[in-house]
Amino acid sequence: MTTTAPETEVLAAVFDAAVAADERIEPRDWMPDAYRATLVRQIAQHAHSEIIGMQPEANWITRAPSLRRKAILMAKVQDEAGHGLYLYSAAETLGTGRDELLDKLHAGRQRYSSIFNYPTLTWADVGAIGWLVDGAAITNQVPLCRCSYGPYARAMVRICKEESFHQRQGYELLLTLSRGTEAQHAMAQDAVDRWWWPSLMMFGPPDDESAHSAQSMAWKIKRHSNDELRQRFVDICVPQAESLGLTLPDPDLRWNEARGHYDFGAIDWDEFHEVLRGNGPCNDQRIGQRRTAHENGAWVREAAAAHAAKHGKATA
Ligand code: 3HC
Questions:
Q1: Please, which of 40, 55, 223, 245 could form a disulfide with 143 given CB 3.0 to 4.6 Å?
Q2: Ligand 1 atom 27: the closest Cα is on which residue?
Q3: Nearest to 117 by CA among 276, 290, 249, 269
């Protein structure tokens, strides 16, 4: 049933009033096509980031230094898979199925976070990812709990609770290494040196280069700008690094009393754009492993579909 122009104007006014009043937009509510499209874009990339993000750390499950550390890491990696499923489910409420999104990821037509294109070279990287990458994720995702789109905001509440566990286990792992032998302290420092700047890039390009921020903030999908959240993350990490007995690899980092924030050095945006173009250290490996995992899982999807067809249930 097509709506007439006047009807659309009324529906748009109702949508705008709901967003202005901080009400939630739900799947059955009318919404601008562009609102729907940017939510699918962002939620899909978020979901893709979660499942690709399983790879760097899973690399260390078989080599964890103790049963306790192995159990913690397995729980974390399993959590990331669950985050991906919540988010693909949130995208499905917008009318876009998981198969379509995965096809776009595998074809390189949808993104995942740049951060996961870096290698995990030592056990300390597992700690640096927990402390820095999951820490950045929390800083970026807590405001998303107040996103105007209901299913996305609700998915974020549970995800943020689990990210807090991820960040704490990473911090504790680094603290153990930092207070260990000289070699262990050096391993922790080397990991922080390699993960610090890519973690700052997780928040997106500078505000004046962000293609989507203005509209996403007007629609209250985004509650803060890329630079605001990046600054918030830096301000959180500096005292934590001191508590860890580790240094952050930025000679320009210093407290600015007038601003009430830490000043920090220039980010290498050329590196960021190269990684987004697919030229990061692990882009080919990550997407190749993802495609292989999808192919190897085809029999499970076929079996589930056959079972559902036989027993008359809608397939997942
Ligand atoms: N990696 C890859 N692409 C990025 C990026 C990054 N770090 N930062 C920005 N981009 C892309 C955007 O997708 C956009 O490209 P597109 O038009 O092709 O989609 C372009 O660069 C311009 O960036 P914008 O700032 O205009 O884009 P957004 O408004 O979408 O902001 C964002 C980018 C801040 C990442 C936002 O999308 C967001 O908040 N997403 C939700 C959170 C998320 O996806 N986090 C990723 C990590 S998930 C994670 O950390 C898992 C945890 O368990 C570790």
A1: 223
A2: 212
A3: 276
> What pLDDT shows up at residue 315?
52
How far apart, in Å, are the Cα atoms of 131 and each of 3, 61, 199, 237? Answer: 50, 17, 10, 9
- Angstrom distance (rounded) from CA 35 to CA 15: 10
State which of 39, 40, 43, 46 you would mutate to test the pocket of ligand 1, scoring each by most atoms of that ligand within 8 A of its C-beta: 46
Residue recorded with tokens 């996305």: 152
Distance CA 222, CA 146 (A): 9
Residue 207 CA, ligand 1 centroid: distance in Å: 13
Distance 174 CA to ligand 1 centre (A): 27
Residue 48's contacts (CB-CB under 8 Å, 6 or more residues apart) are 84, 101, 105, 110, 111, 112
Q: What is the pLDDT of residues 179-226, one digit of tens each?
A: 999 999 999 999 999 999 999 999 999 999 999 999 999 999 999 999
State how far the Cα of 130 lies from the Cα of 169, in Å rounded to an integer.
7
Tokens of residue 309, six digits: 């067809």
Atom of ligand 1 nearest to the CA of 41: 19
Rg of the chain over Cα atoms, rounded to whole angstroms, equals 21
* pLDDT averaged over every residue in the chain: 96
Q: How far is the CA of 105 from the centre of ligand 1 (A)?
A: 14
- DSSP-derived secondary structure letter, 262: E
The predicted-structure confidence for 278-312, as pLDDT tens digits, reads as follows 999 999 999 999 999 999 999 999 999 999 999 87
